[in-house]
Structures are given as C-alpha cells and as structure tokens.
Amino acid sequence: MRSAKLSLIVLLLLALIVPFAKAQDGGAGLTIGFSQIGSESAWRTAFTDAVKAEAEARGINLLFSDAQQSQENQIAAIRAWLAQGDVNAIILAPVIASGWDDVLQEAADAGVPVVIVDRNVDSDPALFVTRVSSDFVHEGRLAASWLVQATSGNCNIVELYGTVGSAAAEDRHTGFQDVLNLFPSMQITRSETGNFVRTEGKAVMESILSSEDPANICAVFAHNDDMAIGAIEAIKEAGLVPAQDILIVSVDAIPDIFVSMDAGETNATVELSPFMGGPAFDAAIAFLNGEEVPKWIPVGGGLYTSRAAYDADR
Ligand code: GZL
Q: Is 221 exposed, middle or buried (0-12, 13-18, 19+ CB in 10 A)?
C-alpha cells in the first residue's frame, strides 16, 4: 500500500515538473528538421555544411532535406516531419517568398515552431518564430556604391539576376537600384536571371556578349559569386579582360571568388555569412523554453576587393 502511494506521489510530482523542463541550452536531444533549398551554389553548400556541423556539435538530431530548388519538395518535407509527430522544431530556407501560408499554418496548428533562415517568406510573421538572415537590400547598395566610386558614376551595367521570386534577388536588385537612382549616368542595360547557378550565369553572359556591343558594357553586377565566375569565363572566351574591360561585383564571398580576385579577374564581393545555424537553433530553443525571440536576427558582411582584406577580418 505504502509503495503504491509513493509511486502516485512521484508521478504527480513528475506531472508538475516535466512540462516545465527546459530544452537544454544547446538543444542536445532535440529533433529539428532543416528544409534546405538545394546545392545550386558554393555558398549554399557551405551554408548546409555549417548547419550540419553546428547540429552535430550540439547533439541535435537534424533531419535534413535538400529540395533541389523545388518549393514543392520543401513543403512535402515539412509535412512529412509534421506527420512524424516527434519533430521539436523546423528550420526553413525558403526558395521563393510566396506560397508558404498553408504549410506554416499547419506547423503552427501542430505546435511545431518554424525558424526562417536566409531568404524570406511573404507570410504573416505570426506564423514563424523569427528570421535569421543578412540584409539583402544593404548588400545591393554596397555593390552599387563600390561601382559608383569605381566608375565615377558613369556605367552601363549587366545584371545577372538570381532566382526569380526569391527575396535575395528581389532585394539585392532593389538596393542596387536605390543607389543607381542617384546617378543618372549609371543604368542597368540588361538584366537576365542565371538562377544563382554558375553554368547559367556563363550561358546568360555569353548570350549578352553576342547580342550587345561589349564596348557598351561597363560592368556586371551578379547576385552571387557563382554567376560572376560563370560570367568571367564567358568574358574571357569572348577575348575580353574581366575586371578591366568589364568590371565585376557580386555577393557571397565564397573561396572561389578570391581565386578569381587573386588572378585579377574580378573586382569586389559582398560577404554573406553561412553561419546561420547557431542563431537559428538558439532561437528555436528559446521559443521552446517560452522566451521572447526578436522577429529578425541579422547576420552581417562587408565588401571586399582583396583576399588580404577579407582574411584580415576573420
Ligand atoms: C542569399 C542566398 C543566395 C546566395 C546564393 O542569401 O539565398 O542563394 O547568394 C544562393 O549563392 O544560391
């Protein structure tokens, strides 16, 4: 009789304590789904590797899905994790901004918090915990500001646009145009999407070089380094000197862009940190522990015109 009573008391105590048990600070033991866009660029791959390494270091059980740049695949992965019923949180790197309302509502209804990383969604912010990202508009402004000082405000520019509909492409374009609007002799004369992919960036630049007088192209603004590297290959194959005949500025600061910079084949890159996993996991854990989380957690980055300057900032 005494042991039954004791067991009952213990169970009652556990019932009181367990609901208030905090997720361990680092997230050890949590199961978190990470819906990644794909592996379209070297930056994306570095971002994936950094998130996986962070999860491993924290003892988080990471469920990883590479959507191969398909929103349909991202939504399917999230729904599968919700159906599993044992996922504590979801990290989403959305390929494009629209089309997330339903699945984010389903996650909210299931009590599974979602943290947005990198690109943005145009859904109600109440449907996700926070967004960890850089400021894409600022990145565009930085790139344009460098080009203004490199050309004294007089330049016809080819824009290699990222994935159509993505916040990264839309906002980098907006920031770049914000600055150009101040300089009447700076204009984007051609803008074509290369979808953030190196081979597509090369193909688009080849097409532009064959349909425009290259003497009228002062510079290329590529929304990411991979497309810039593709453009560099096209410029060289057209018999022109990249970074001299045609200036080049891009975003991401991937290792390969510094190889091009060392060779004098590109001019400038804006850094985009791949280390968003830590802040994303921290935000999910804070939310699970009932703590307030800001709606935006920024990651920074500067503009670099040499490897030495980039290395000096590490
Ligand atoms: C921007 C990110 C972009 C990178 C590209 O934050 O979404 O997607 O600049 C990647 O390299 O494809």
A: buried
